[in-house]
Write a structure and sequence with these properties.
The protein is mainly β. It has one helix and 25 strands. The protein has one domain: AttH-like domain (AttH-like fold, Beta Barrel). Helix content is 3%, strand content 51%.
């Protein structure tokens, strides 16, 4: 049971790193490869054989009154077995389906988080097979009617969720305004020096977004822009790694930046990589020496007790950028109700150029702080 609890903790511990664990002795999982043969749109669907994958959306929205919101919507597939067990039962499952969703009311200064966790089984949740438009789905949280769903619409993604207990719902449609980007050589994103510490990773860095947001029973039409990440792998963090800081930044001049820093147990930077995307869509890899990131403040969660960095100065000389990255709300910590020791910071940020001029927006994810479950066994 402890093994499975650890597996769930890892699986729920977020989307920008590497994988969950499975019981010893099961069939070998597929490894991330430098020569992976990408095929789109097929690769938007689940990739059975890999231990872990996720579809990760973050974005900034406004209603008709220009009230601003940040949001997150994520589905995880967590592989339990490579092949179905020898059981004549509809409850036999090879995967878990997990969902995280959050909305941040930036004017009201309130952050809400919801989660689902079910086995991939009839009536509970699962993953579609190409070309079925439905990519992933799950029953809504207990006490809430309906499903959480994610669909491919031809040039973007549609998704919806609701949670009666936390009193919010999303129903959004997204459409790509720039081509997808592969991170790392041919989409092989390394997370450490070990060849096994890697994932296949791509993003849609600009998605035009519209739909509805419901908070406390009040629905509003919203519009904005989103970022989508898809990763799949079968590897784990290196033993010395404790967590990561991940940045998805959309500049007002049409460029985008993806950056991540893997941290060791002492808080030092263990491994780092990035991607700079031109306004025309071309992607350029960023090595650690190409950029510097310095935390400028701290914030301590009154609930979890974790202390997170809060605000950064980012310099990328090759892009002629010096940016301040500033959280739009201090408390954007996601705290699991299912696993009390699982929490992480996932928040909307603004970008400021020198002199305080607005330069863009983005999202930041911070894992492995405080006593949070380490995102590896």
């Amino acid at each position: 049971m402890k093994k499975w609890r650890s597996t769930l903790a890892v699986a729920l511990a977020l989307g920008a790193g590497v994988a969950a664990a499975v019981p010893d002795g099961e069939q070998a999982w597929l490894a991330a490869r430098p020569d992976y043969a990408w095929s789109f749109p097929r690769d938007h669907w689940a990739r059975p054989g890999y231990r872990t994958e996720w579809w990760y959306f973050t974005g900034h929205l406004q209603d008709a009154a220009e009230r601003a919101f940040g949001y997150q919507f994520t589905f995880f597939r967590i592989g339990l077995l490579r092949e179905p067990p020898a059981l004549d039962s509809a409850w036999a499952a090879t995967d878990l389906v997990m969902g995280h969703a959050a909305v941040t009311d930036l004017e009201g200064k309130e952050h809400r988080f919801s989660e689902v966790l079910v086995r991939a089984a009839p009536l509970l949740g699962g993953f579609g097979v190409f070309p079925d438009p439905r990519l992933a789905w799950s029953r809504a949280p207990a006490g809430t009617a309906g499903d959480w769903t994610l669909r491919w619409n031809g040039d973007g993604f549609d998704f919806e969720m609701s949670d009666a207990a936390t009193r919010f719902a999303l129903a959004l449609s997204t459409h790509a305004t720039k081509p997808l980007v592969l991170h790392g050589p041919n989409g092989l994103s390394r997370k450490g020096l070990s060849p096994a510490a890697a994932s296949q990773y791509y993003s849609f860095t600009r998605l035009r977004t519209e739909g509805s947001l419901t908070v406390d029973g009040r629905a509003a039409a919203v519009r904005g822009e989103s970022w989508m990440d898809k990763e799949f792998s079968s590897s784990a963090l290196e033993p010395r790694q404790a967590g990561w800081d991940w940045f998805s930044l959309q500049l007002d001049d049409g460029r985008e930046l993806m950056l991540y820093l893997m941290r060791d147990a002492d808080g030092g930077i263990d491994f780092a990589r990035g991607t700079a995307v031109a306004s025309t869509g071309e992607a350029r890899p960023l090595a650690p020496g190409d950029w510097t990131l310095r935390a400028t403040g701290k914030w301590r969660s009154p609930t979890s007790g974790a202390e997170y960095p809060a605000g950064w100065t980012l310099e990328i000389p090759g892009e002629r950028l010096v940016l301040t990255v500033r959280p739009l709300l201090a408390d954007q910590e996601n705290r699991s109700r299912r696993l009390p020791d699982l929490f992480y910071w996932e928040g909307a940020v603004e970008l400021l150029a020198e002199g305080g001029r607005r330069a863009g927006k983005g999202y930041v994810e911070l894992t492995g702080y405080g006593n949070a479950a380490k995102p590896a066994i």
